[in-house]
Specification:
This protein is mainly alpha-helical. Helices cover 52% and strands 0% of the residues. The protein is elongated. It comes from Streptomyces coffeae.
């Protein structure tokens, strides 16, 4: 029974954290228009 109570408390805390972050909103910023390079460019 203690394990069930601990799981319920943990789930409630995780849900509260998710709701808090979603209410506050993500960090504001802009994405870069430049594409990310996945390979090292070759130098001639």
């Amino acid at each position: 029974m203690r394990a069930l109570a601990a799981a319920a408390i943990g789930l409630t805390a995780a849900l509260a954290l998710v709701l808090t972050v979603s209410a506050i909103g993500g960090p504001s910023g802009e994405t870069s228009p430049e594409p990310l390079l996945t390979t090292v460019p070759e130098h001639p």
